[in-house]
Amino acid sequence: MIQNEVVLAGKFLTEALTTYETQLVETVWPEMWGYNGMYHEAISDLPFGTLKYTTARIDYTGRAVNYGGKATTLPLANFGINMDEYKCQVGVLAAEWTWQELRSEEAAQKNTFLPRTNVVQSYRNALEKGLREWMHIRTVFGDPTIGFTGFINNPYVEVINVTAGANGVTGTGATAATAYEWFRTELSNFRKNTRLTAEATAAIVDEDIRAALQRRFADNSNDGTPAQMLTNRAESPQLRKLTTVNEFGADIVRDVNGGNITSIGGVSIPATADLLMFMDSTVQNNIMRHYADIDTMPPFILDDGMTYRQIGLCATSEVIYAQPFRARLYILNKS
Fold it and tell me: Mean pLDDT, the chain, as a whole number?
């Protein structure tokens, strides 16, 4: 009977998902650096359903004075506690299989001469990838439509607008020498303002900035490149780490399917701009977020009696900068 066929299709779906659940969990998507917790600390302790994540920030006050042996009013070592709240968001995605798709795959598995359709595994992989991508985008860009802040559009990140004329890296007429001098000057300024040591700064750049830092100082010479001079100096590297990510290009930042962001911190982002971030190279306990890893519900049948659906979900908090303004974002204009 057709009713029995539908029931058997559902049984096959449940068994098939159970068969390669472990294999799917181990799948790695290296381009999803926001989901994978690169360049920040990701802590998987967020319960599903949490609307806000609250942390306590302690500010100490008071300075010791010299004691001269006489009774006097002593300064006090006090502290104040501020409660910071960060929004949390849940991402949901579903995969669907029709009865015909499931029965076709089951028949193919029993017949070695028929090609494998793999609809169960393919749709389940798509479900996993879609949720990872959602968390990656929310981590990097947040969600400006609801005021959800991420890695770059964060109120604790200082944003600096660099005009094309002052852009010695990718601006008009920029050379290896101007790129090196621009980085050297701005790195020093960043370290002075944030009280970072010379060895503690990392930079995240887009592909155009990386290419600019690979220019040689002189044609056909062995003088090296700005990237080598900034990161490989034996006495004291000015940059601990230089990392290239595609998401720092203005085209992806502005893309409606990417960041969907046209300005950050009141600074407009032109379509051709480059983004550059200086930050403390030690992100533990400084840049972090809390998240709930991907979970799935048992497959269920829809009202039509012939379509099966599985729902996957994950959650993340906004990105937390525990040490405010230890990160600086440059918008480099080219024209």
Answer: 84
